[in-house]
């Protein structure tokens, strides 16, 4: 199943919604969540990074190790369990509404200058670190969603009535 995933990276958060818009046109998921559930999860993650008490303390030793491993790898670790109950999406969601919520969360985060709460596993993060985290998080989860490609038969141009009347090379 992992080979079916998209290899996806986002350098900036403003790259996320164009990808989501393409997926809304038609998609297949290869993971356990629907696109709507993934969008709900990503929205909750971004919201949590702007809520709570700001934390500028030093990271614990364990957080420091996790921080270095996470950001050096450039990839979101597999099989992580949600660190907060709001990150677990409901069974049924409205995908379009979740896409709008994600867009609003990204805009809100992008306009925010903090202060930001600490990540439970990585410790205190500055705005740029949170941005990179969210880009990696979005790429990880949206990688489980494949855009449906149109069938080749739908791409073939069908002759129009005016084309049918033409002989070879435009002769009538």
Automatic annotation (TrEMBL):
Signal peptide: none
Transmembrane segments: none
Residue span of region Disordered: 152-172
A Pfam short name: DUF1569
Classification via Gene3D superfamilies: dinb family like domain (1.20.120.450)
Any coiled-coil regions, as ranges: none
InterPro entries membership: DinB/YfiT-like, DUF1569
Protein name: DinB-like domain-containing protein
Species the sequence originates in: Singulisphaera acidiphila (strain ATCC BAA-1392 / DSM 18658 / VKM B-2454 / MOB10)
């Amino acid at each position: 199943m992992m080979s079916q995933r998209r290899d996806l990276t986002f350098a900036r958060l403003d790259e996320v919604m164009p990808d989501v818009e393409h997926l809304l046109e038609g998609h297949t998921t290869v993971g356990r969540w629907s696109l709507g559930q993934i969008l709900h999860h990503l929205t909750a993650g971004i919201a949590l990074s702007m809520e709570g008490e700001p934390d500028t303390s030093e990271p614990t030793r364990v957080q420091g190790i996790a921080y270095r491993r996470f950001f050096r790898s450039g990839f979101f670790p597999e099989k992580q369990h949600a660190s907060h109950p709001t990150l677990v999406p409901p069974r049924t969601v409205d995908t379009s509404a979740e896409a709008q919520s994600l867009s609003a969360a990204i805009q809100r985060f992008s306009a925010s200058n903090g202060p930001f709460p600490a990540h439970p596993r990585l410790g205190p993060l500055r705005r740029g670190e949170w941005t990179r985290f969210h880009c990696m998080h979005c790429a990880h989860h949206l990688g489980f969603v494949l855009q449906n490609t149109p069938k080749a038969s739908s791409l073939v141009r069908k002759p129009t009535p005016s084309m049918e009347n033409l002989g070879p090379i435009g002769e009538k």
